[in-house]
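Tip: read the tokens left to right.
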């Protein structure tokens, strides 16, 4: 329907529906991935999942590079964008439901079927015993903010908002830095130009640069995963946030174009590491019975941060890029302060399924 849009408002409606569906799918996929793998492989599984986000960005840039100059190129772009979605719809029919979810819903027979299939596919013995959950129930919105999750949920919410503000904003910021020639960084590329209708148009060189930006997230995600598995989630949070803060502040001091590029890409890597460990940590923080609800809420709040970051970046860049950098500095400083109040480390923890199991975990932590 996107491709057949005949007016701007119809285009916006299609875009809103698409965004709604993508928002619901992304958080669910993170929760599903966390519940389907053992603790020792959870971080790397998240890394692989996040990698596909980068590959999707690269795919979009490559398609745009070849088709946007064609007559009706944007319609071709949207058509080719939909192809991976159709492939995903087909592959989803081969996915099993999470046995953890089935168990807390009281459907133990279906859960055992999935467990047996997983064991068969991995050529291992089915574990002895029976599936059991002491608290068969579903999570509610209010429980996310109730004890014992109040403090952690508030901190995670702030991090989702701040992180997505930075991640979504920095991509636009770099493009605008080139367009407005901040610190002379357009010296390597032909920058955006204005066509006969008054619209700004990306050049092929800028599409290539966007591919580079998308790929720059990969080492950040890798470092975030390695850090989360070696020094722990909390210390990886601290290092990535404080490195990002330091280089965000350095961006305000314009030395020369090369140093500015180094600062920008270091910020991207730090923000990506921050994003990676956040998606590893958040599903581990909540028990299974409320994990889907909690991650859905946190992801939704994060998207508000993404919208704010995108809007403010574009709006303020037209006035003065330094104002945008001030906003980035404020957001990353908030992250620096907030992380000091997050004291729970989830490295090596098994996922908790019920409120009873969560209370047991809390009692063990108090006596440790």
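Filled-in amino acids:
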């Amino acid at each position: 329907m996107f491709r057949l849009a005949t007016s701007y408002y119809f285009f916006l409606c299609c875009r809103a529906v698409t965004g709604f569906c993508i928002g619901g799918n992304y958080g669910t996929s993170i929760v599903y991935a966390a519940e389907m793998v053992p603790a020792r492989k959870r971080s790397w599984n998240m890394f692989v999942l996040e990698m596909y986000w980068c590959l999707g960005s690269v795919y979009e840039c490559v398609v745009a590079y070849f088709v946007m100059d064609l007559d009706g190129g944007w319609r071709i772009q949207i058509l080719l964008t939909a192809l991976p979605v159709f492939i995903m719809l087909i592959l989803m029919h081969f996915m099993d439901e999470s046995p953890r979810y089935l168990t807390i819903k009281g459907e133990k027979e279906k859960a055992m079927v999935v467990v047996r299939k997983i064991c068969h596919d991995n050529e291992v013995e089915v574990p002895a015993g029976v599936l059991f959950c002491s608290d068969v129930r579903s999570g509610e919105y209010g429980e996310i903010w109730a004890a014992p999750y109040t403090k952690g949920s508030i901190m995670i919410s702030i991090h989702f908002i701040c992180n997505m503000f930075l991640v979504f904003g920095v991509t636009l910021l770099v493009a605008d830095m080139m367009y407005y020639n901040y610190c002379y960084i357009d010296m390597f590329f032909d920058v955006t130009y204005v066509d006969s209708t008054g619209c700004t148009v990306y050049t092929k060189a800028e599409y290539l640069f966007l591919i580079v930006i998308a790929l720059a997230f990969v080492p950040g995600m890798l470092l975030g995963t390695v850090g989360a598995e070696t020094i722990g989630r909390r210390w990886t949070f601290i290092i990535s946030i404080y490195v990002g803060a330091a280089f965000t502040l350095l961006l305000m001091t314009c030395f020369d174009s090369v140093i500015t590029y180094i600062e920008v890409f270091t910020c991207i890597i730090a923000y990506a590491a921050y994003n990676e460990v956040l998606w590893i940590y958040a599903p581990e923080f909540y028990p299974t019975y409320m994990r889907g609800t909690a991650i859905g809420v946190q992801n939704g709040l994060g998207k508000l941060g993404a919208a704010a970051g995108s809007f403010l970046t574009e709006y303020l860049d037209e006035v003065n890029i330094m104002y945008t950098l001030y906003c980035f500095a404020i957001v990353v400083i908030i992250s620096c302060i907030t992380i000091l109040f997050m004291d729970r480390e989830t490295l090596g923890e098994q996922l908790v399924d019920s409120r009873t199991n969560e209370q047991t975990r809390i009692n063990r932590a108090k006596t440790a």
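The mean pLDDT is 87. The beta strands are 193-194, 200-201.
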